[in-house]
Amino acid sequence: MDHISLLCDEVWLSSPASDDTPVQMTQHGTKKRHDDNGESHMTKEEFEQAFTICLEEEKSHIPKHDYLQYLVSNNLIVARFRSIQCFIKCRSRFNLSFGTVFYATNYLDRFISMNQYCNIEWKYWMVELLCIACLSIASKFIDTTTPTLHEINQIEDMEHLFEASTIQRMELKVLEALDWRLACNTPHSYVQLFIPNLQYLTLDHLHQQHSIITQLFYLLLGAISDTKLVEFRPSVIAVSALWCCLGGFLSTSASANHDSCLTGFFDKEEKDDLVRCHKIMMEMHWINGTLYKLEADGEYQYNYGCPSSPTTVLLKERNSIRDFNVDLSPFQKHPPRYKSCIKIKEEAEESS
Question: Which residue intervals make up region (Disordered) (predicted)?
Fold first, then answer.
């Protein structure tokens, strides 16, 4: 019997502050300074420069402007949600980086968005195959130790089993669609930038930083799972999450200073997005350390946690799909180039 099938996570989401220490961002050419504990920090000017560069780069790493409508019209909301839950479970199961979850989500969203003009009739097995491929690519790009394709495919809740050759073909499709540009700015990227520089955001106490880091990661995992937030830029999601988390630790005046520090990088329209995004995030509540999203209509509830000790493990039969039965031709090798909503806005401003 496969040993993976009966494994259960006693703690699905371990503490982000303990097992996923933020890594200082260096791709922007900023110099790092180290304190007596060996921790690296940027100067305030370097922090602002890195933040500005991230804001510019993220324009190339977001889905098409009508992506949310496409998900709704093609009944992909639930499939996307389940894919991201799979990413989160695999992160815990295989001890992957939190960044892997965000990269995999970014690849999945960009790939679906890029193919929305290809007249694809999406089937659930397609999304599951894409889910496995995106997680595999992200883990290889970020983590030093990665799970095998078979191990990923054995995660709970997967309804289909794919041959390794099928997954590899899908990986190539994704890589080609993304032009092999795997480095991207995600909400997690901004958190990596914020955390080592919290002293510039008026926070100096280590216990406060630990609590904020933990809340930030849980809140961001909930944010990328919530389809209503896909319309917001990664920077908006990250700053909104930090805004939510800092509110309980800062005085009114300190909170105002923080808001001014980060929101000063955004224009009026983006600030309006911050307000809307923050309002949605404030509806996410903490109950016994687990993040819940309560929908306004009260009909259902998203639980981003997992029972600590399930009494039973149900093994359901899965559909095995042979490689020769999988046609990936609907996914174009090089999907039509699209313009993000940001690019469209910039071109409109230039022509006016």
Answer: 18-39
Q: Name the band, by pLDDT with cuts 50, 70 and 90, for residue 43.
A: confident
Domains in the chain: boundaries: 62-185+321-345, 187-306
d(CA 276, CA 228): 11
What architecture is domain 62-185+321-345? Orthogonal Bundle (1.10)
Query: β-pairing, 290-294 with 40-41?
Result: unpaired
Cβ atoms of 132 and 167 closer than 8 Å: yes
Residue 13 confidence (pLDDT) above 50: no
DSSP 8-state assignment for residue 199:
G
Q: Fold identical between 62-185+321-345 and 187-306?
A: yes
pLDDT digits (tens, 9 = 90+) for 79-119: 999 999 999 999 989 999 999 999 999 999 999 998 877 77
The span from the CA of 106 to the CA of 63, in Å, is: 8
